[in-house]
Design a protein that fits this description.
The chain has five helices and seven strands; from the N terminus they run βββαβαβααββα. By secondary structure, the protein is an alpha+beta fold. The protein has one domain: Haem-degrading domain (Beta-Lactamase, 2-Layer Sandwich). The protein has a five-stranded antiparallel sheet. It is globular and about 50 Å long.
């Protein structure tokens, strides 16, 4: 095992998937990858983030949004639920914006905590913090900025929470669209059952 850029998250030594990822992206390939989502792969998640970067990166320079230029994005495998595996095993990928060595806070830790909460409860972080405080357990994050869009969970940290939420929603919606497109392609090709996880980039 290797360490991610943050030095805390395990990343398998075997590259996954073969498609190169942009700088700042840490793909995860746990043993659970073989039974994750058939149509929402790490490659598709990476493409969703890449599609949003032209909007996100300039926005981070706006002090009403962030002003730091730093952000961390964590995408969960929508094919894996809390009863299937641990949180770490369900992380699909993590993407950092800005040099981690210059971060003034643990944005990766915050993003993972937000993702963990939304993943476990199946609700956007704001909904939990504003009206579902009774669902919170010891150690849960009291921050919001994570979303769960029809089972697609994305946690973001680095901007104001409403912008973290907006960026997370855009990424989740893009990944959902990619999954729908991959599903349509599979049906067009005559498939009657979902393929193995990771085969649809």
């Amino acid at each position: 095992m290797m360490l991610s850029e943050s030095g805390t998250n395990p990343v398998p030594a075997t590259p996954f998937p073969a498609t190169p990822f942009p700088a700042g992206t840490v793909p995860f390939a746990p043993a659970t990858a073989a039974r994750g989502s058939s149509f929402a792969s790490a490659v598709a998640a990476c493409r969703a983030i890449e599609a949003m970067l032209p909007v996100i990166v300039p926005a981070l320079r706006d002090r009403s949004v962030s002003g730091t230029g730093f952000l961390c994005i964590v995408v969960m495998d929508p094919g894996l639920q809390p009863g299937d595996c641990s949180f770490d095993e369900a992380v699909l990928l993590e993407h950092a914006i800005g040099d981690r060595r210059e971060w003034d806070a643990d944005y990766a830790g915050f993003a993972r905590a937000k993702a963990a909460l939304s993943w476990r409860l199946g609700h956007d972080g704001h909904a939990v913090q504003s009206s579902r405080a009774h669902r919170l357990r010891e150690g849960d994050s009291l921050l919001w900025g994570g979303v769960c869009l029809e089972g697609i969970t994305v946690g973001v940290s680095g901007a104001q929470p409403w912008w973290d939420e907006a960026f997370a929603t855009c990424i989740a919606a893009h990944l959902r669209a990619s999954a729908k497109a991959a599903h349509a392609d599979a049906r067009q090709a005559g498939a009657l059952v979902a393929p193995a996880a990771g085969q649809n980039g």
